Amino acid sequence: MPFNQWVIDDFEAGDLTLSGGGILRNARLHYHQIGQMNAQKDNVILLPTYYGGAAEGNRAFVSPEYGPLDPQQYCIIIPAMLGAGESSSPSNTLGSQAGPGFPAISLYDNVMLQKQLLDARFPGASIALVMGWSMGGMQALQWASLSPEKVRSVLATCCTARCSPHNWLFLEGVKAALTCDADFAGGHYRRPPEKGLKAFGTVYAGWAYSQAFFRRGGYKELGFDSVEALVRFWENDHLAQDANDLLCALKTWQSSDISANPTFNGDFAQALGAITMPAAVMPSRSDLYFAVDQATEESGRMPGARLSVLESDWGHIAGGPGRHEGMMAKIWEVAGELLNAQ
Q: Which of 109, 181, 287, 313 is catalytic?
């Protein structure tokens, strides 16, 4: 396999026992890969996906020209989150687990399936870095807490180790906007609930960026001449997504807690304390739902962590792969420091 060629594949894992009870039948993990594992098996990088994003969206983290994630040096794997439309999800599952019958998925379930992928196709791999934005960052922290002997460094942008009550409420709001559409029909829709999907996108857009972003016309940096044009983009983006997939991944987000699993049994302090390897937590100063104060408090309880705040008006979007050139430079700088220290 050429070092500079992306390979797209699926890992068929069979039945996956879920942490919340029940079984996901015929679990399938979709992933992208570039680069090869070396003979020492110590050059693997994991980039778990974010909410509403496909695996391809994380490719912007990989830039040999500008950043340290070089496929000539590293084997880079992007595992797609369960329930988000590429790995096993409501929209691509048949039978009783299709659509609204799809089971609830946790952070732990995602990481356990990703671990199965590594054990099967990259046996003996030592993970140089687990890195992610938003829900990808939550998965990165989950990896670090569960496998400190396997993960050598972690970088988590615009996320926290568990969903706060206010974050949960924000998500309830966008969920209500979607499910109020009569065409949603409790998830048994015959056609996409377009009004609900557009409403979901509209409400979400107001939370994704900060107040200052809108007040100072930050949307113009994205090529939009008005707030309305930006909102139309968000509406169209969500019209392209499946409603049950959005809600499945949203439920994973709302229940996110790196201690809610059989390893830590709800002991949040113990789960944070297990992150002993070098770690960087990079919240955005203006993030409206993954708050800096929560990230600060949590990172202070991770023995290996340091806090590096992204000073930006772009809110939650500041830490996204390829979203803001200046913020990407800062993220790559920290990622390079973590990798070079090994």
A: 287
Q: What is the pLDDT of residue 289?
A: 97
Q: Active-site residue 188, yes or no? A: no
Residue-wise pLDDT tens digits, 164-181: 999 999 999 999 999 999
Whole-number pLDDT of residue 341? 95
d(CA 270, CA 275): 9
| Catalytically annotated residue among 30, 32, 238, 316 | 316
Mean pLDDT (the chain) is: 97
pLDDT score of 2? 52
185 SS3 class: helix
| R_g (Cα) of the chain, nearest Å | 19
Of 53, 54, 34, residue with least CA distance to 44: 34
Burial class of residue 93 in the structure, from the number of CB atoms within 10 Å of its CB (0-12 exposed, 13-18 middle, 19+ buried): buried
User: Is 316 among the catalytic positions?
Assistant: yes
Based on the residue annotation, tell me whether 166 is a catalytic residue of this protein.
Answer: no
Helix axes 107-121, 135-146, angle to 10 degrees: 70
DSSP 213: H
- The structure's pTM equals 0.97
Alpha-carbon distance of 140 to 82, in angstroms, equals: 15
- Which of 87, 88, 89, 134 is flagged as catalytic? 134
